[in-house]
Design brief:
217 residues; alpha+beta; repeat; six-stranded antiparallel beta barrel; 5 helices; single chain
Length: 217
């Protein structure tokens, strides 16, 4: 589990293809002070397992599904990536619940500055758009962000200078792909409602008595 608060911008040292999989090595001098084999590190929002480490570098394995489903297939040697270690149980929670299981990718449609903010519009598929809400949370390349605008096919973010400096969002340009993870609470609510309606012969109508029965006064 992660929070979406990026700890470091790392740099990809090597990408070695092994069939449809990839072995990736990342330079990360700041976050490896307490690393152990098997630890989880989110790389551009993708939860990956440390397979080996030495000095200021760690190596992870990208399985074929990860290569197909995320934007990591498009990065290369020298690319900067957002890095976050799995959250500690006793630490502060500054972002939102981020699983590191990317729901899909989006494309940056527009990027424009306004005073000290930069507005970024990201186009997504309908299967992702349904989980997005105004002022709701979304993780973009692993960064916990707040949605400030919505259309039928896109969402807009307002990025502060700190986010632009400390994450890869500062170097992203129009046309670039990004990893998108929607708020897991929205996905759980959808699944719970879907199960309820599947298991009822006829869904119960929402009436005054129904609301009182379920705690609404």
């Amino acid at each position: 589990m992660f929070t979406g608060i990026i700890e470091e911008k790392g740099k990809i040292v090597s990408m070695k293809e092994t069939g449809k999989a990839i072995v990736m090595t990342v330079e990360a001098p700041e976050i490896l002070s307490d690393v152990k084999l098997g630890d989880s590190i989110a790389v551009n929002g993708v939860c990956l397992t440390v397979a080996s480490f030495e000095g200021s570098q760690f190596t992870v394995d990208l399985m074929p599904e990860t290569v197909r489903a995320t934007s990591l297939r498009l990065v290369g040697e020298g690319s900067e990536v957002n890095l976050e270690r799995a959250m500690a149980a006793g630490g502060r929670f500054g972002g939102h619940f981020v699983s590191g299981h990317v729901d899909g990718t989006g494309i940056i449609k527009k990027k424009e500055a306004d005073q000290n903010a930069v507005y970024v519009e990201i186009e997504v598929e309908p299967k992702l758009r349904q989980y997005l809400a105004m002022k709701g949370s979304v993780a973009v390349d692993g960064t916990s962000l707040t949605i400030f605008g919505l259309t039928d096919t896109s969402f807009t973010l307002s990025l502060i200078p700190h986010t632009l400096k400390e994450t890869v969002m500062g170097s992203r340009q129009v046309g670039d792909p990004v990893n998108v993870e929607c708020d897991m609470l929205a996905k759980y609510v959808e699944e719970l409602l879907a199960v309820r309606f599947r298991t009822q012969e006829k869904p119960e109508a929402v009436s005054e008595s129904f609301l009182k029965e379920h705690g609404f006064q």
